[in-house]
Amino acid sequence: MRTLLCCALLLLPVSLLPAAKTLDIYIIDTEGGKGIIVAPPGGETMLVDAGYPRADDRDTNRIVSAAQALGIKQFDYVVATHYDADHSGNISKLITRIPARIFVDHGEIVPTASERNRKDFYESYVKAIAGKNRMIVKPGDVVPLKGVKITVVTAGGAALAKPVGGAAGRPNALCGVASINKDVTDIYDNAGSVGLLYEYGKFRMLDLADLLQSVEYKLVCPTNLIGQVSLFMVSHHGFKVSNSQLLYQSLQPRVAIMNNAARKGGEIETFDAIRSDKRLEDLWQMHESNAAKEKNVPEQFIANPATPCEAKMIRVSVQPDGTFTVTNTRNNFSKTYKP
């Protein structure tokens, strides 16, 4: 894990409060961690990961601030995508400020994870949720958050066995052609990541957390089990050990959002992989990438272009017909994508 600069406390403008009958997704800046609030119509809410555990409570405060501005006093679901410090490491502290009804995770940590990850993050997470409602998921399960369909596509290193709607299930001619590294492994729990497919009207969003290329491959080869998506949350903060060209060219996302930090993720190879599918309309970034300065998108698409940053969010608001709008809360620049 890398040492990152602190940012000012996030403030949520009144203009960002959710509209009626929209699915609203708030990507909170945890500077290379992850914290996403999902608020579909119907009143239930879900938090996906909780950023870094820090002595100054930086990420806890940012998530709590956003939740309070949205009127959230309890999360119905909290998803621990995997057991790394920047994802599940702060859940135990976060739920002392905002409780949760049900905790979603993939069960046992992957065998290749280090003993430190097991002791410091997996076991502390299990201890924090002891006695609480826990939902251990496998590919094909559905997280029953009211108002949106959320299908688990990866969990614990396994992937879907059957296609999920749309154009999914077709043989993929890209297998063996597009670039991929199937031999990537690491000492963390990234390969175990809980990947989620969100469907609302004609809108489809895929978020694979920090999934490695070896498991990405299972989703799209020999057949594409996902099909096309409207929006893709760039995996693993933009690191090249995830984010194969094969994945992007198979999913054909119209829009991608990279939850990177100035000095974490956002690698050149990932920018190239994202743009390898020419049907991509726009890439949005949480931070300007220092590692790939010549690859960064125009500033209006970057939530936090400077350091120290202002901890601004990116918001996605989806209409029932699948039309979705992405907003940079730093400058209120928005763009709408029709279904």
Look at the structure and give the CATH class.
Alpha Beta
Q: What's the alpha carbon Rg, rounded to whole Å?
A: 18 Å
Report the biggest beta sheet as strand number plus sense, adding barrel if it closes: 9 strands, mixed
Domain count:
1
Give the overall shape.
globular
**Which CATH architecture would you pick?**
4-Layer Sandwich
Strand portion: 25-35%
Number of discrete helical segments: 6
Lateral strand order in the biggest sheet: 6-5-4-3-2-1-18-19-20
The helix/strand series, from N terminus to C terminus, equals EEEHEHEHEEEEEEEHEEHEHEEEEE
Kindly report the average pLDDT value: 92
Question: Which blocks of ≥5 consecutive residues have pLDDT under 50?
Answer: 1-16
**What is the CATH topology?**
Metallo-beta-lactamase, Chain A
Number of strands: 20
The helix content, as a percent range, equals 10-25%
Query: Please, what is the CATH homologous superfamily?
Result: Ribonuclease Z/Hydroxyacylglutathione hydrolase-like
Give the helix/strand class.
alpha/beta
Report, as a whole number of angstroms, the end-to-end distance. 39 Å
How would you concisely characterize the structure shown here?
The chain is an alpha/beta fold and 339 residues long. The chain contains six helices and 20 strands.
What keywords describe this structure?
alpha/beta, Metallo-beta-lactamase, Chain A, 20 strands, disordered N terminus, 339 residues, globular, single chain, nine-stranded mixed sheet, 15% helix, 25% strand
Structure description:
The N and C termini lie far apart (39 Å). The chain has helices at 58-69, 91-94, 115-128, 213-220, 245-251, 268-274, and strands spanning 23-27, 36-39, 46-48, 75-79, 100-105, 133-136, 142-143, 149-155, 158-159, 170-171, 195-200, 203-207, 223-224, 231-234, 255-258, 282-287, 302-304, 314-318, 324-328, 333-337. Mean pLDDT is 92; it is low at 1-16. It has one domain: 4-Layer Sandwich (Metallo-beta-lactamase, Chain A), CATH 3.60.15.10. β14 (231-234), α5 and β15 (255-258) form a beta-alpha-beta unit. The chain has 6 helices and 20 strands. Strands 6-5-4-3-2-1-18-19-20 form a 9-stranded mixed β-sheet, with no helix packed on it. Strands 7, 8, 9, 11, 12, 14, 15, 16 and 17 form a 9-stranded mixed β-sheet that branches. The radius of gyration is 18 Å and the shape is globular. It is 15% helix and 25% strand. The protein has 339 residues and is α/β, with parallel strands linked by helices. α4 packs parallel to α5 (245-251) and α5 (245-251) runs parallel beside α6 (268-274).
